[in-house]
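Exercise 7 asks you to align residues with tokens for two separate proteins.
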Amino acid sequence: MGTTAPVDLKDICIRFGSIRVLENLNLTIAPGEFLVLLGPSGCGKSTLLNAIAGLLEVAEGEIHIGGRNVTWDEPKDRGIAMVFQSYALYPRMSVRKNMSFGLEVAGTPKAEIETRVQAAAQMLKLTPLLDRRPAELSGGQRQRVAIGRALVRQAGVYLFDEPLSNLDAQLRAELRVEIKRLHARLGATMIYVTHDQIEALTLADRIAVMQGGVIQQLDTPMKIYREPVNRFVASFVGSPAMNFLPGRIESDGAFQFTHEGQCPLTGYRWRTPGFAGAATLGIRPEHILAGAEAGPSALTAKVEMVEPMGSDSLVWCRLPNGAPLALRQGAETSLIPGDPLPVAFPGDALSLFDDSTGVRL
């Protein structure tokens, strides 16, 4: 359905009065790529998406879609289709009419409209619902209709602005899978805005993590999860969050925890070899070695709480220096509050951050 197109953003600046939301932002999205813009509220991700869509004017810079400069083109002339957070369906129109209305206005032949609507409905399991009105549909079905309305456009680029945030957890998971399948089937360029890291990690070919109007890191989900470029990315991506432990890197290369204990850094992939000074050690809960696995360099933590999560358990501990620590254990763990627990941190799973800049070392 349709052709796929690259998107190229060159030195994009967006201002609201004297407030600079985006400044000299550059981003290239390959044809057929699924790019997720991820970040907290107010980071500029929806602003950027609206600029690509033509719903917001840029103060400076250029937007190229499919190799064509569309910076000042109307939304309808950009070769894009958009799915919003609110379904934005016409309440008095049937599902079929909601999906076909834009094509009718554009003067598309009736036979072509029917072919496109049927194809999109089949892809999104909407065929039995084509004669219903939005009020007769569930939230998930309405969002499918909104996606179907975008699909029939047969656009070069599909834009999604937090399309699942109004749905409950189970529906979000179901539609996430459907969007992933849709992308695999269409091979279309998709740009997807979310503040939900699970959506980002599961859907994206690449993720652009944004904060304060700046892309902090642009990389594959695995690279962002395993090697965050700074402390903000490390803290924002991952659930439960990465553990952060204060200390300093000694000149001999070991990490000295504040007050008590050391951690060898054997196997750590340095970006700044030879660094010594105040730093923070980051490690994800599933990468911590515990109990007999911890070995001779273990610290002894004290278990404070065990949280059964179904497939595994989250164990909340406190280190001798008082620092909190969360780690994952098997669902059948016998640990209880008050238990001592040896823990160790393998060098190849660590993230080290410079305390003065927050940048990965």
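Second protein for Exercise 7:
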Amino acid sequence: MATTLETTVNLFLESEMNSPLSWEVADLDANGGSRRGGNLVAYSRTCPGKEEPNDDSAAVITLDDGAIIMAVADGVGGAPLGYKASAIAVQCLQESLQGRVAGTDLRPAILDGIERANAEILDMGTGAATTISVVEVHSGVARGYQVGDSMAMIVGQRGSIKWKSTSHSPVGYLIESGAINEAEAMTHDERHYVSNLVGTREMHIEIGPAIPMAARDTVVIASDGLFDNLQLFEVAALARSGKPLARMNALVDLANQRMQGNQPGVPGKPDDLAALLLTP
């Protein structure tokens, strides 16, 4: 008889965190032995000065077989009920993974969760939409799933970027093509536009490659509140080493400085911010 796996879920919905939260997790190797002890760090807070609810949501879901699934969703700012759309996205992912049968691949459950969210948000009929970025880590291998411009990256111990997702936006595609660089993207007229969203009939899910995880690798997932204010090399430099909470605090502090215009000559984009780190 098929056995459904037990899950542990940490959801961050409309969060107003004064400081990051950290807890221990452990991925398992292919034989069921502990591969690495690690830490999850989460942070989510509204844009400085904003009175409406935080449109960013995040989730960390761990399964009994050692799988770790992390997700960040960013409800479209200015759209009706953006915060509700992002909450639906991570909750549908949670529900789909809770029904996963032991020994089965994670991919169908993750894809089903995102597709369910798309249908549910469309059924609301309000025009709400959200991004979502998901990373699964299981048996020492990571894989990303992407809709929109919330992004994920895997950073090596020395700060090398082993993999990153592609932002589904006009500016994101320009960066990937080499037409502009990251510094130019931060001031581009179209940096606010997103071309692929959960809650639209045209939604498509990009599935990343399987990335073997080294013992000291770090996974970063965040909304554009981080990635529109920091360049990738800055995120990698701050995320790669140090105590888990110190890494997140460094990222959050620099993003907030940029948002508030406290660094002359460096552009900033005020926005809600949600971020997750999986660190050694």
